[in-house]
Write a structure and sequence with these properties.
Distance between the termini: 35 Å
Radius of gyration: 21 Å
Shape: globular
Order of helices and strands: HHHHHHHHHHHH
Number of strands: 0
Strand content: under 5%
Length: 261
């Protein structure tokens, strides 16, 4: 967590920090079993922290670009300067950042564009996404890049600057390929795939208890709605394969015979 805090402040990218805080909170929730009131308080606190980061990070990145040191002092200074006259939580400031924190904004643009301006992809785009997720670039030269702007603009109609990166997201991929009903079926299948992976990790953890500690690494990208499907799906498949290799090589080290109580 400390290394993630340092890297987040140094780069002005806070996705990793927020994601791992959520996962850490889940671990503690399972361990200490907090009351409902504590859960609500924790949720409100997290949303408040996430909102402050979202409203401040643009100015913070500008300071980093100008040569400022990426640390808590710089972030606090940025927050204070951004919150002069208590303006950081104004309606205008919140509305300005809505497009970045609302994945529905991207989906709305995709649904407006398809099929009004472009026809449904009918699985062509999905084939490209799956190939990019599974195959290495050596075997698939047209493999999509993470944050591919041309690919994003083609289906959303949103033009991005060279310093901005957005992903269509799984919902948009499902819709632009198969329409509303087909997109719902696709999302069910995708959720079933992720659920199956978690079920298998839980089953095998009976004889390999440490295996559950790898679950956050597997689902780090799949749980992020802002992530491109080829990235989240590719991470899911490749991380499971890597874990299989590790536990195959070090089977005797991790194995523990399960005994029924």
């Amino acid at each position: 967590i400390s290394s993630i805090v340092i890297s987040s402040l140094g780069q002005g990218m806070f996705h990793d920090l927020l994601t791992w805080l959520i996962m850490l909170a889940c671990v503690y929730a399972i361990k200490i079993k907090p009351t409902f009131n504590v859960k609500v308080l924790a949720l409100i606190s997290f949303l408040f922290i996430a909102l402050i980061i979202q409203l401040t990070k643009s100015d913070y990145r500008s300071k980093l670009a100008s040569g400022a040191t990426g640390d808590l002092d710089t972030f606090e200074e940025t927050y204070r300067s951004s919150n002069k006259n208590k303006s950081i939580f104004s309606f205008e400031k919140l509305a300005e950042n809505n497009t970045r924190i609302n994945q529905g904004f991207i989906l709305t643009n995709v649904m407006y564009r398809i099929p009004r301006i472009m026809p449904y992809s009918e699985g062509v785009e999905m084939k490209q996404v799956v190939q990019s997720a599974v195959l290495p670039r050596l075997l698939y030269k047209d493999k999509l890049k993470a944050g591919d702007r041309k690919f994003f603009t083609k289906y959303s109609g949103i033009n991005l600057t060279s310093s901005t990166s957005m992903g269509l997201g799984s919902l948009s991929d499902g819709y632009l390929n198969y329409g509303v009903f087909g997109g719902c079926v696709f999302m069910f299948c995708l959720g079933f795939l992720f659920s199956l992976g978690l079920i298998k990790l839980h089953q095998y953890s009976k004889n390999y208890p440490v295996l559950l500690l790898f679950a956050p690494l597997v689902y780090y990208y799949p749980i992020r709605p802002d992530c491109e499907l080829q990235t989240s799906l590719g991470h899911f498949i490749k991380s499971l394969f890597l874990i299989w290799v590790i536990f195959t090589i070090f089977k005797k080290t991790f194995y523990k015979k399960y005994e029924k109580a």
